[in-house]
Design goal:
The chain has 346 residues and is α/β, with parallel strands linked by helices. It folds into 2 domains: 170 residues, Aminopeptidase, CATH 3.40.630; 160 residues, endopeptidase domain like (from Nostoc punctiforme) (endopeptidase fold (from Nostoc punctiforme), Alpha-Beta Complex). 36% of the residues lie in helices and 21% in strands. The strands form 4 sheets. Strands 6-1-7-10-8-9 form a 6-stranded mixed sheet, with helices on both faces. A 6-stranded antiparallel sheet has the order 11-16-12-13-14-15. The longest helix is centred in the first third of the chain and has 18 residues.
């Protein structure tokens, strides 16, 4: 589908909630869980990522689902949205799986593409699209419309409770369908690039020549710091921690001016408005792509590295080159440190 970010829009509605007579309708229920309560955070998460990705979204989730379906359809038609989706979940006796409902061929195509993507990404069953002629939101919208049954409230409850993940997956599915690139945070860009450039394991155990960087890292280093002739041997080869992190950040497209040299990097991270310092970091609060810096109590020795899934992505001198080690916990909490600081790219 061709999508114009300036003119095209989508309406994303929360299933159930306020009825046309003003009475609250929770939708289907299972134990303490209700359809309306489960769908609201999913839609909110989807809307947030869609908007970050540059997609114009109208939704009743902005006001915590305070509009009935006639109001949402009326607004969607008035705004002349290009797509309409209402997000629901199936009742407790329904079988597990994602099930889009449609009435038009375009609505079917929309629902199928989104439903299949979600099922695969979330590790769920896909039950296929179902033709329905008795549903107001399908019959009364001017745009191609779909009612997305996100899963069974009982059989898929675990997945539905992962609201942020489900919502972001829904947003990614919609972006894929309309051909819009999904927004990726700078922190995530750094994390992905660190994984791409670093060897996966400890040099003592990994099956690779200890004196050679990966081909991807050599290419990134040359592009990030083309003039390295006057540098020390470890730095010139990209085998020092500061050059490794600098290469990662620069080649991720996050910050082309990121310096080298640990002292300069510390000053830069503190002063630049491109980064924010994470307050009171703990292993539990760490997120992939965080930049970690520390200094030892004795002397001026220090280190800089990138956090990923409880591990360190870093480099330290000739034979080690960029690699992954499992000592993030000790790196963050060692008593030998004078201080540890953690930064997040904005």
């Amino acid at each position: 589908m061709k999508w114009n970010k300036k003119t095209d829009s989508i309406f994303l509605a929360v299933g159930h909630g306020t009825q046309i007579n003003g009475v609250w309708d929770s939708g289907c229920a299972y134990g303490q869980y209700t359809e309306a309560a489960l769908m609201l955070p999913i839609v909110k998460a989807a809307v947030k990522l869609l908007r970050k990705s540059g997609v114009k979204v109208y939704t009743d989730a902005d006001r915590d689902n305070d509009k009935n379906m006639i109001a949402t359809v009326t607004e969607a038609n008035k705004k002349k949205v290009k797509l309409y989706m209402s997000v629901h979940c199936d009742y407790k006796d329904a079988t597990a799986g994602v099930n889009p409902l449609y009435v038009s061929s375009k609505g079917k195509k929309f629902g199928e593409k989104v439903g299949k993507y979600i099922a695969k990404a979330m590790g769920m069953k896909y039950k296929g699209a179902t033709y329905r002629t008795d549903l107001y939101e399908l019959n009364s919208t001017d745009a191609p419309s779909c009612i997305l049954e996100t899963g069974s409230i009982k059989e898929d409850l675990k997945k539905l409770k992962e609201a942020k993940k489900y919502g972001r997956t829904l947003a990614k599915a919609i972006c894929k369908y309309i051909g819009v690139e999904v927004y990726v945070s700078n922190r995530t860009k750094i994390a992905r690039k660190a994984c791409e450039l670093c060897y996966p394991g400890n040099p003592k155990k990994a099956k690779y020549p200890s004196g050679k960087p990966t081909a991807a890292y050599k290419k990134a280093l040359k592009k990030a710091y083309p003039d390295r002739k006057s540098w020390s041997t470890p730095a010139r080869k990209g085998a020092s921690c500061d050059v490794n992190v600098g290469t990662t950040v620069r080649s991720a497209g996050v910050d082309k001016t990121f310096p080298r040299g640990l002292s300069d990097q510390i000053k830069y991270l503190e002063a630049s408005d491109k980064y924010k310092r994470v307050k009171k970091p703990t292993l539990k609060s760490m997120k992939n792509g965080y930049i970690v810096v520390y200094k030892n109590k004795t002397g001026n020795k220090g280190h800089i590295w990138i956090y990923y899934d409880g591990k360190c992505k870093h480099a330290a001198y000739n034979k080690y080159y960029p690699r992954t080690t499992n000592n993030a916990k000790s790196q963050l909490s060692s008593k030998k440190r004078a201080w540890v600081r953690v930064y997040c790219a904005k």
